[in-house]
Structure formats: C-alpha cells, structure tokens
Amino acid sequence: MNYEKTAAAVFLCLVFLGSFACSPDTTKEGLSPFCEELGLLSDTNSALGNLDFDNPSSVDTAISALNELANNAPDDIVENVRSVASLYENILRKLVAVSPNQRASELRKFQSDLNQITPAARALEKYGTTECGIVFISPLEQAPTPLPPEIQN
C-alpha cells in the first residue's frame, strides 16, 4: 500500500463517526436495526473499515452500507446521518476514480466539507453511544489494557 492510499484510508477512518471504531462486546441487548447497522459499520472489519480504492466494488459495498444506515436512521438524527453518508459517498466515489498518486490531493479538496460535517458526525457518535450502547475507541488512542487478575482488587 503506498503512502497516498494509506493517508486517504487513515483520514477517512479518522473522520467517519468521529474517527472511531467500535469495541467488541459493548452493545446493548435488543438493539434497533439502526443500532445494529451502526455497530457493524463502525467495526474495523466492516465494508468501511476494509476499503480498497483499487477495487471499485469494495467502495460500492461501503457506499451501500452507508446509504442503508441513512435509510434506517431514527427521525431525531436522520438528517445528520444523511449528511455524513452523502459526503462520504462523494469522497469515496472521487477517490476510487482517480489514480493512487492523486488520492491524497483529492481528499484534501474535501477538507472544508469534512469540517462542516463534523457536528453531524459527532451527533451520530453520541447517538451510537447513548442509544445503542456502542463504545467507540479512537484510532489515535490506545484501547485500555485489562489489568491481570492478580493486580485487580
């Protein structure tokens, strides 16, 4: 994977859902379909987490997952989810359409849009945390390491 591809993938991961991945086994029982989709999509093994800009079908799969999430969003956050999904669809389509050495510069062209969408992404993150019980872990922070049993009180 070259630098530009890595930079683009990392930047997308850093921005979507407030730049977070879902930690395992941290969701509530009896989730709504939206919460289930949000948990799956925020997982590092999801279509969004496994983007390959040299494989348009992987991008199409991620876009479909984002649109499905937007279609099932609850009324109180539907506009936020649609805004995030729409922008990411535009970004993903652009990145898959250009050569690998153009991706970083093309992604930078979306910086203003990404800045504007941050409140919507944060609202989606908050909903995921409060309503879905998803614990998000920033890729910039280390996940807490459990203490060995002999150290725990």
Describe the model:
The chain is an all-alpha fold. The model is unreliable at 1-28 (pLDDT under 50). The protein has helices spanning 3-15, 33-42, 56-71, 78-97, 103-108, 111-130, and strands at residues 21-22, 136-137. Helix 4 (78-97) packs across helix 6. The longest helix has 20 residues, at 78-97. The protein has one domain (3-137). Strands 1-2 form a two-stranded antiparallel sheet. It is globular, with a radius of gyration of 16 Å.
List the helices and strands and how they pair.
Elements: H1 3-15, E1 21-22, H2 33-42, H3 56-71, H4 78-97, H5 103-108, H6 111-130, E2 136-137
Antiparallel strand pairs: 1-2
Helix pairs in contact: 2-3, 3-4, 4-6
Query: How many individual β-strands?
Result: 2
**Share of helical residues:** 55-70%
The portion of residues forming beta strands comes to under 5%
Give the helix tally: 6
C-alpha-based Rg, rounded = 16 Å
For the termini, the CA-CA separation is 45 Å
Supply the number of structural domains: 1
The major beta sheet can be summarized as: 2 strands, antiparallel
Elements, N to C (H/E): HEHHHHHE
| Stretches with pLDDT under 50, minimum 5 residues | 1-28
Q: Structural class of the secondary elements? A: mainly alpha
Could you tell me the mean pLDDT? 77
Shape: globular
Name the strands of the widest sheet in spatial order. Answer: 1-2
